[in-house]
Amino acid sequence: MYTANPKRYNSMQYRRCGKSGLKLPAVSLGLWHNFGAIDDYEKCRNIIHTAFDCGITHFDLANNYGPPPGAAEETFGKILKQDLKSYRDELIISSKAGWGMWPGPYGDLGSKKYLMASLDQSLKRMGLEYVDIFYHHRPDPETPLEETMTTLDLMVRQGKALYVGISSYSAEETQKAIEILKALGTPLLIHQPKYSMLVRWVEDGLLDVLDKNGVGCITFSSLAQGILTNKYLNGIPADSRVASTRGNGAIEKDALTEETISKVRQLNEVAKQRNQSLAQMALAWVLKDPRITSVIVGASKPEQVTDSIQCLNNYNFSKEELSTIENILK
Ligand SMILES: NC(=O)c1ccc[n+]([C@@H]2O[C@H](COP(=O)([O-])OP(=O)(O)OC[C@H]3O[C@@H](n4cnc5c(N)ncnc54)[C@H](OP(=O)(O)O)[C@@H]3O)[C@@H](O)[C@H]2O)c1
After folding, report:
1. CB of 300 shorter than 6 A to ligand 1
2. Residues 45-61: pLDDT tens digits?
3. Does residue 219 lie within any of the structural domains?
4. In 103-261, which ranges are E strands?
5. Tens of pLDDT along 87-131?
6. Domain of residue 166, residue span
7. What percent of the chain has pLDDT over 70?
8. Which atom of ligand 1 is nearest to the CA of 221?
9. CB of 63 closer than 8 Å to CB of 100
10. Is residue 267 included in any domain, yes or no?
């Protein structure tokens, strides 16, 4: 029997998502990896319990998370039913569709046909009546943006999603999506881009578009899938994502180039001087920008969740620290 920690709201920070009424925890948990059918169920439970006990109220999923695709939603649905049923109104659960999910022309990208069917499948797998946020997972160059956005609006009108978001859309595409959704009466709540010390594209326009329009921003892979931690400084640990053969976009050995590891080694020294782990500093570095609503972290162990959230103890950087970091990243 799981009973949530009564002190779970004591230390987590909650940030307003753009100009909406919704607040999200500054650190959220994502289930892209480590919650598939190949993963130990009790460990998955433990990670979710640890996160919720620390005040992490937001769990980020998608139709294709696993492996196999769909398995993370099934695992999460089982945990919800077993442990979190009575806490549903304390949770923000998101799902997405946009990547290939089933064969044929209706299981991928951004058509109304695909997105409506996919959301119904996700709700069934998680045993939910609605998701709190539904995202279009990636831009579709072929489907008219009006069709995809009208579909997001319809989901809200049907009560299957409370809010809508987009992921990995460029600044220009985001501006267009914002305008279409605004005209439909369902404002864009949030954008989910990849953003870390190693991947900086959002700084070239996207964050300004979001800020100007009052849209929130929740980042993914802010630890670069584990590269921005101290775990790969002395080789590849057997229990790491790189050592696994998970597929579905998980980083592999070739991501650990000498150039990258040399930067990580130097960043690790800066983190030490700040009395933080490198993981904490990498997350703090993203959260220093008030335009960021939340960082979604992944975790293969409960201890990683408790370690990562300590980034909230210090996300202020001196000018000197910032310029040292910029020099390392150059
Ligand atoms: N919208 C999109 O297209 C998209 C794409 C990717 C991800 N996402 C979302 O973002 C979430 C996070 O993505 P991600 O898994 O790439 O994130 P990440 O936070 O960059 O990487 C997570 C991995 O980092 C390691 N780690 C985490 N905390 C650690 C700590 N404190 N100390 C040492 N190592 C630590 C673990 O690696 P080990 O497994 O090696 O222990 C963990 O599996 C996903 O679950 C998903 O919800 C969205």
Report:
1. yes
2. 999 999 999 999 999 99
3. yes
4. 131-136, 161-167, 188-192, 216-219
5. 999 999 999 999 999 999 999 999 999 999 999 999 999 999 999
6. 14-230+282-312
7. 100
8. 20
9. no
10. no
Give the mutation target among 251, 296, 303, 305 for probing the ligand 1 site: most ligand atoms within 8 A of CB.
296
Q: What separation in Å is there between the alpha carbon of 249 and the centre of ligand 1?
A: 11
CATH number at residue 124: 3.20.20.100
Measured in Å, residue 221 CA sits from the centre of ligand 1 at: 5
- Count of domains for the chain: 1
Residue 228 in contact with ligand 1 by CB distance below 6 A: no
Residue 286 included in any domain:
yes
CA of 220 to the centre of ligand 1 (A): 7
**Residue 16 alpha carbon to ligand 1 centre in Å:** 23
In a domain, residue 252? The reply is no
In this predicted structure, what is the pLDDT of residue 263? 98
Choose one of 241, 260, 304, 309 to mutate for the ligand 1 pocket test, by most ligand atoms within 8 angstroms of C-beta. 304
Q: How far is ligand 1, taken at its centre, from the CA of residue 117, in Å? A: 27
Q: What is the pTM of this model?
A: 0.98
Question: Which residue minimizes the CA distance to atom 21 of ligand 1?
Answer: 225
Question: What's the pLDDT at 245?
Answer: 84
pLDDT tens across 7-45, in order? 999 999 999 999 999 999 999 999 999 999 999 999 999
Q: Is the pLDDT of residue 246 over 90?
A: no
Burial 198-234 (b: 16+ CB within 10 A, else e): beeebeeebbebbbebebbbbbbbbbbbbbbbbbbee
Residue/partner pairs of 196-205 with CB below 8 Å, 24 or more apart: 196/221, 196/222, 196/223, 196/224, 196/228, 196/282, 196/286, 197/224, 197/228, 197/267, 197/282, 197/285, 197/325, 197/329, 198/224, 198/227, 198/228, 198/260, 198/263, 198/329, 199/224, 204/171, 205/171, 205/172
Tokens representing 17 are 């998502």
Q: Is 32 in the pocket of ligand 1 (CB under 6 A)?
A: yes
